[in-house]
Amino acid sequence: MENLRVEMTHAGREKNLALANVIKYGAVSHDEKEITETEHQITEENKQQQARLSNNIIGPNIIHEIVSRRTGIPTSELSQAQHHRLLKLNENLRKKVVGQDDAIDSITKVVLRHKGEFSRQNQPIGSFLFLGTHGVGKTELAKTLALELFDSTESIICIDMSKYTESNSIARLVSVPPIKSSFSIAQLIDESSDKKHVGFEQDGELTEAIRRQPYAVILFNKIEKTHPQIWNTLLQVLDNGRLEDGKGQTVDFTNTIFVLTSNIGAQYILEEVENQSSSIKISNGELSQTIKNPIMKEVRLCFQSEFFNRLDDIVFFQPLNINQLSSIVHLQLKSLECLKEKDIEINLTDKAIQSILKKSYNPVYGVDPLKRYVEEYLKEELSKLLIQTRFASPSLVTIDTDINNRYLFRIQHLQRTTSNSPKKLGYVRHSTHEEPMINVDDDDEQENRFSAYEDGNTSPRRLSKQMKQSPRMRK
């Protein structure tokens, strides 16, 4: 490049303008263009290299994720934003669990008190006894609490205590030492048990789960059915926050929440529901003190007195009213991930909700038959509709019923409109398409299928009467 410039200058001095122009507008211009392109290419490569380097920088979020995977400690416990989530815990739980505000308030107070270090030291975060009829949200609240506190639905350990009714079942829960040669096998066999457990060298179901997942919600379902010997172990954990298993290993429970569920006294709640002709017609959904008193009387007969001193609270779960049941149906449909991905919104008319509740809900079984009905009928038909129909994004699907009590789908293709606020999107109706669903107006068939699904020969009303007439539970 420098040589060309020298030759161009020399040609100009010798008045050789033709050669000077050839060099200036030919060779020099071509070389300058190549140099510019090369410099631009180098600049782009440098930018890409810097981007790759910046992506390889290990930040706090990556560190939190790696530590969480290795230790089982949730990322919320490692980040500085945990206190913001704790302050919104009550609000977030209410969005996902319907109709149990008192239970949510009780849990939130205990958790905040523990996080503020005003609770007893070296004990679990909280321990609760959930009382109420079947299918009112006891398990759902425990699962939602695990998700909100520990960032994962896998942070809940569910144990059915009806499987631990024998004296030697404690071995499966926390493990026992292996058999020593100084003992005879006959001494170690429990003659009163159908299953002759000689000893367990495997890890206990509870202790091993907490060793792998130290931050978790422990859900003991049907706690009243467990063997009394297990109560002694449970009292030790609630009192000391730790437990030594049969292998001599200490398991830490100070970062766990114990949730014990029971249906004790459910017959009193069902009796109150039927006195009002249907739980769907309950106006406030709150239990009166006249119902709580006999329930607590049975609870005291079933559990040891020392047990109540270790609990943070005994929570009564309320029966659900019509508005709360409607919200549950909406949540079941709006939780579909496939609809979220396609930007499809679901809306139900009042007639559709009334039809769903009439065909599926029964106070004896709670919302479980309702969820199953939505799963097997509405979601199935929505799936067919998604396959058969091309949806524009976004769309609104309204579920209604006709005069023959058949479900109808009204598909409204919406168009986004820009509003004053950049964070809000408005929608206007673009076009409407209507599709009828299958005929599900056979009320007798639906009632037989969903309200008595646990026992084909027992109707819900007959089961309710059986629960009323059953003898009270005693120690």
Description:
This protein has three domains: 2-55, no CATH class; 88-316, 3-Layer(aba) Sandwich (Rossmann fold), CATH 3.40.50.300; 322-450, Orthogonal Bundle (Helicase, Ruva Protein, domain 3). It is 50% helix and 15% strand. It has helices at 2-13, 17-55, 60-71, 75-78, 82-87, 89-96, 101-115, 138-150, 170-174, 185-188, 205-212, 228-240, 266-275, 289-302, 305-310, 322-334, 337-341, 350-360, 368-388, 443-450, 460-469, and strands at residues 126-131, 156-160, 216-221, 242-244, 250-252, 256-262, 313-316, 344-348, 395-401, 407-418, 425-436. The protein has a five-stranded parallel beta sheet, sandwiched between helices. The chain has a four-stranded mixed beta sheet with strand order 8-9-10-11. The protein has a two-stranded antiparallel ribbon with strand order 4-5. A hairpin with a 5-residue loop joins strand 4 (242-244) and strand 5. Helix 6 runs antiparallel to helix 7. The longest helix is centred in the first third of the chain and has 39 residues, at 17-55. The relative contact order is 0.08.
